[in-house]
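Let us work through a complete example step by step.
Step 1: write down the sequence.
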Amino acid sequence: MTRIRFRHVALGMLALPLALGLAACDKKAEDGSSTSGQPIAKIAPPAGKAWSDMVEKTAEGGYRMGNPEAPIKLIEFGALSCAHCAEFAKESFEKLRDDYIASGRVSYELRYFMLNPYDVPASLLATCGSTEAVIPLSEQFWAWQPNMFQNVQAAGDARLKAVGEMPKEQQIGAIAELAGMTEFFSARGIARDQANSCLADTAKAKALADQTEKATTQFDVTGTPTFVINGASVGSMSWAELEAKLQQAGAR
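Step 2: predict the structure and record it as tokens.
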């Protein structure tokens, strides 16, 4: 997918066609960067805690799991509508969490990237509950993602067009309902009243758009998932390739 600039309030991008690429993500070629380091010993968590249970929101708007002082800092720019992100999540998350994050050597930060109008309500709802729930909810959403595609396709062109013709401030909630997102998150503890409040948060929607714009300029993110290790972009790759990068950086 070509680079999308989000210079305006996030609501404005909902004027884009709602049928925009249901698998709207790109496998960005690896940039050839490499990291190299000596093996790093495991780092014990605080007494009575596990690193994988420690999640906090970062100043950059991401959600970081693990040791905040981990010597290897992994960032994923991911889109909840992205099929490649869903594939990566299925392949990677348990091993990443249990072998790498739990060791204290690697922290994992998820930063949402807005590829298309579906990502706005999905991201608003995934971050509607507690901070600790954000990453698990995102992983669950990626597993459920094919159902979203089916719901959108089943809605038909007439309904999609009707949503696109709504006032912009109503479109985010309408997309969430049409795609089945509201029901999905309701079944996972985000009550409808709470969900509606989050979907109406235009300031947060704009922050997500600004975060996407910053990613395109700071790390040249043009597709998802894109990974950053210790501040250097390593592009987009499979879990096997990324695991090798983490081990090369010292997580071994």
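Step 3: interpret the result. The chain has one domain: 26-37+60-248.
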